[in-house]
Specification:
This protein is mostly helical. The chain is built from 4 helices and no strands. Helix 2 runs antiparallel to helix 3.
Length: 131
């Protein structure tokens, strides 16, 4: 692992590069990160197709950000536990399960937010098709 030995503004900009590497690493290694990212893109495309108002876009961005952040934290927690406790241990399981629960909780929020945002536009579209 590369240690950040830069100082001042260089250190500040290096931190962005390290963060980007972390996101890319999670995307490459974690199936759930790929699934969440793909669904996020599909939701944003649908938001564009339905021409949702800015407030709906903001709610969708909030939900997407929360899910991806939870997934990144879950990945970091799992990697740390695997490093510290490679053998099976009840506390390691508890920590991993709890981190996974945080992802599930944010994903449920995202689904509820999606239903809230898309319900009326989709129902209006279906009604238009039927008339």
């Amino acid at each position: 692992m590369v240690k950040n030995t830069a100082v001042g503004h260089k250190k500040f900009w290096h931190s962005f590069r390290f963060a980007a590497h972390g996101i890319a690493s999670a995307f490459k290694s974690e199936l759930n990160m790929k699934v969440h990212s793909t669904l996020a893109i599909l939701v944003l495309v649908a938001a564009g197709i339905f021409r949702l108002p800015l407030s709906s876009w903001m709610l969708l961005f909030l939900a997407i950000t929360l899910v991806l952040t939870a997934e990144l934290l879950n990945t970091a927690i799992e990697a740390t536990i695997d490093l510290v406790s490679p053998e099976i241990h009840p506390l390691a399981k508890k920590a991993k399960d709890t981190a996974a629960g945080a992802v599930l909780l944010t994903a449920v929020f995202a689904v509820i937010a999606g239903i809230y945002v898309f319900y009326h536009p989709v129902m209006d579209w279906i009604t238009g098709l039927m008339s």
